[in-house]
Design a protein that fits this description.
41% of the residues lie in helices and 32% in strands. It has 119 residues and is α/β, with parallel strands linked by helices.
Length: 119
C-alpha cells in the first residue's frame, strides 16, 4: 500500500511544483521528499512549490522532512513555499509556529504567481 504519492512538474525554468497526495509521516515514504529535493537542486532548480492539497495527515516526522528540505533549499540560495494546506495539515504548521517560517498560499497557482515576483 502506498501511503504517499509524489508527483512533480516543471512550472518554469528552475521552478518545480511538487504535488503530495496521502500521508506525510514517519517512514521510508516521506524520506523520498528529501531525496527528490536534493536531486532537483542538483539539476539546477532553485524554486519549489510544495502542494499539500492532497495531504490528509502529517506528523512531526513529516514536518521535520519539510524543515530539512527548507534548510537545504535556503543553503542553495533557493526558495521553498507551501500551497493548498488545509485542516489538520495546516494546523500542524500553526501549532508548531512553523507557519511563521514557511510561506503558505491557497493553491499552487497563487504560490507560482508569488515566487515569480522578485523577492
Amino acid at each position: 500500500m502506498i501511503l504517499l504519492e509524489i508527483e512533480q512538474r516543471q512550472a518554469a525554468p528552475g521552478t518545480v511544483v511538487i504535488l503530495l497526495t496521502g500521508r506525510v509521516m514517519l517512514g521510508d515514504e516521506s524520506a523520498r521528499i528529501d531525496t527528490l529535493i536534493s536531486g532537483l537542486l542538483g539539476e539546477g532548480n532553485q524554486t519549489f512549490v510544495v502542494d499539500l492539497s492532497g495531504v490528509t495527515h502529517i506528523d512531526s516526522t513529516g514536518i521535520g522532512r519539510f524543515i530539512a528540505a527548507f534548510n537545504k533549499v535556503l543553503q542553495a540560495g533557493g526558495r521553498l513555499v507551501m500551497a493548498g494546506a488545509t485542516g489538520q495539515v495546516r494546523d500542524s504548521f500553526a501549532v508548531t509556529r512553523l507557519d511563521t517560517v514557511f510561506r503558505f498560499y491557497a493553491d499552487s497557482a497563487e504560490a507560482l504567481e508569488a515566487v515569480a515576483r522578485p523577492a
